[in-house]
Amino acid sequence: MEKSLKPMSGYLALVISLLLLGGSAYLFIYGINDGENPDVTYIIISIISFFITCFLLKGLMIIQPNHSRVLNFFGKYVGSVKDNGLFFINPLYSSQKMSLRSENLQGQTLKVNDKMGNPIEIAVVMVWKVGDTYKAAFDVERYSDFVKMQSEAAVRHLAMSFPYDNLEDDHAPITLREGGDKINSILEQELTDRLSKAGIIIQEARISHLAYASEIAGAMLQRQQATAIVAARTKIVEGAVGMVDLALKKLSEENIVELDDERKAAMVSNLMVVLCGEKAAQPILNAGTLYN
Prior knowledge:
Mean pLDDT: 82
Low-confidence stretches: none
InterPro entries: Band_7, Band_7/SPFH_dom_sf
Oligomer: single chain
Distance between the termini: 99 Å
Number of helices: 7
Keywords: Membrane, Transmembrane, Transmembrane helix
Subcellular location: Membrane
Protein name: SPFH domain-containing protein
Pfam families: Band_7
C-alpha cells in the first residue's frame, strides 16, 4: 500500500556538501604544497571529506512538479515522495522516478465481432494517470505496457457485449452506435476495474472510431438504406390512408356527391396512387362516366 513520505529539505545538505567540497580541495592543496614532505594527514582528511561530500550529494533529490519518487531501502519499500522541490533522503535509498501527469492513449483500431457476430472496427482514446505509485511500481511489471494491453482487452469485451446497432436486435436497450455517453461510461468503468490493480486512474475514455468491417460494410449500408425506405413508406401509407378517409367523410358530410361502393373504391384507388406515388400524378380528363 502506498505510503506518503515527506523528507527534509535538501538546501542545508547542499550547503554542507559544498562547504565540505571546498574544504577538501583546500586541505588537499595545503597538504601537497609542503614541497618534498607533503602532509599526509591533510591529504587523508581531504580525501575523507571528498567521499563524505559525494555521499551527501547522492542523498539530494530534485522532484519536478507532477512527478514522484518511489523509495526503497535494500529491497524494502520506504515510501513515495510526491511533493516537488529539493529534498535530502538517506543516500542508501534507491529511488524510482514516476510521472503523475495525465497521459493520452490512442488505441489501435481493432477488428472484433459484436454481440450479433458482425465484424466491426473499433478504437478508443483514453486519458489516464498514475494514482497509486506503490501498485504501479510493484504490482505490475511495466505499468505503461499493462495499460495498453488491458485497454485493448476492455475494448474487445465492450464490443462483444453489445450489438453495433438495432437492425438485428430490435429490443437491444443499448447499442454501440447509439449508446453515446452510456457506452462511454461503461467503457470507463471497465477500464477502471481492469487497471485499478496497477494504481491507474482513468480520467476519460471515449470511442474514437466505430464502423462495420470492410467486408460487410457495403451490405450493411444497403440494409440500412432499405430499412429507412421501408420506414418512410410506412409513414407515407399511414398518412395517405388518413387523408383518404378524411376526404370520404367530408364528401359524405357535406353532401357534395353521392358515391356508391364502386365509385368509392375507384376514388380510393386514385387517391392512393396520387399520394403514395414517387412521381407527380398526370391528370387525365374523363369525358364519360365510370360505367361507360
